[in-house]
Write a structure and sequence with these properties.
7-stranded parallel sheet, 249 residues
């Protein structure tokens, strides 16, 4: 690895599996002092064990402001600053219009919108001038999705956060960008359907991607690394699609 993040302090929420874990592993490999979160202590402990480098795990649900306060108190005590923040925690599930419940709506928007908002807002006192913030969006922010409308709407909101916060934080030269992966082989994606439907889901999603396959989480991690690196120093307020062309053609 190139040591792109040597001497930097990074926070990645929702980093116990899938894309979040891959981002955490890549950032640690690039030299970052890393703080990661997860809701389940056992999964968090297992994730920390899989990351080579200086990593501190903090049990936190990104939809809980109290948990986020604990996270940032830990960062303040252990590192005193944040140079790179990836608001990755979130999720969703399928429900078609006509079957959407208040619980489904609340859980999705709390995880993806409320969690992103209060993660970034809570980090503000610790973010260094010139820091980089990455918000995890999705190709559904522009494509929509059958039986996936609540999730898609939540990710469209996250994308607009990047537009607005790039302006709010302009005087501190903090860059805010959205990263929108295409279909990626993660436990979260496979968990949307029963085990015996995994292959069918992946094949169906791959058919929508010009590259003809779904992504590996490490490929999304590479895009996140770019956004927090000096190579992206003039990239701000944008939505970077790492989607194999799915939403582009």
């Amino acid at each position: 690895m190139s040591g792109t993040l040597d001497g930097k302090v990074a926070v990645v929420t929702g980093a116990t599996s899938g894309i979040g874990l891959a981002i955490a592993q890549r950032f640690a490999a690039e030299g970052a002092t890393l703080f990661i979160t997860g809701r389940r202590p056992d999964a968090l402990e297992a994730a920390v064990a899989q990351i080579e480098g200086e990593v501190i795990g903090v049990r936190a649900d990104a939809a809980s402001v109290a948990d986020l306060d604990t996270l940032f108190a830990t960062v303040r005590e252990r590192a005193g600053r944040i140079d790179a923040l990836v608001a990755n925690a979130g999720g969703g599930s399928f429900l078609p219009l006509g079957q959407i419940t208040e619980k489904h709506y609340d859980e999705t928007f709390d995880a993806n919108v409320k969690g992103t908002l209060f993660t970034v807002q809570g980090a503000l006192p610790l973010l260094t001038d010139g820091a980089s913030v990455v918000l995890m969006s999705s190709t559904t922010s522009v494509l929509g999705g059958k039986a996936f409308s609540v999730y898609a709407a939540s990710k469209a909101a996250v994308r607009n956060f990047a537009r607005s916060w790039a302006l709010d934080l302009a005087d501190r030269h903090i860059r805010v960008n959205a990263l929108s992966p295409g279909p990626t082989r993660t436990p979260g994606l496979l968990g949307l359907v029963p085990d015996d439907q995994h292959s069918g889901l992946l094949d169906s999603l791959a058919g929508d991607v010009p590259l003809g396959r779904v992504a590996d989480p490490a490929e999304i991690a590479g895009a996140a690394l770019f956004l927090v690196s000096p190579d992206a120093s003039f990239v701000n307020g944008t939505e970077l699609f790492a989607d194999g062309g799915q939403a582009q053609v």
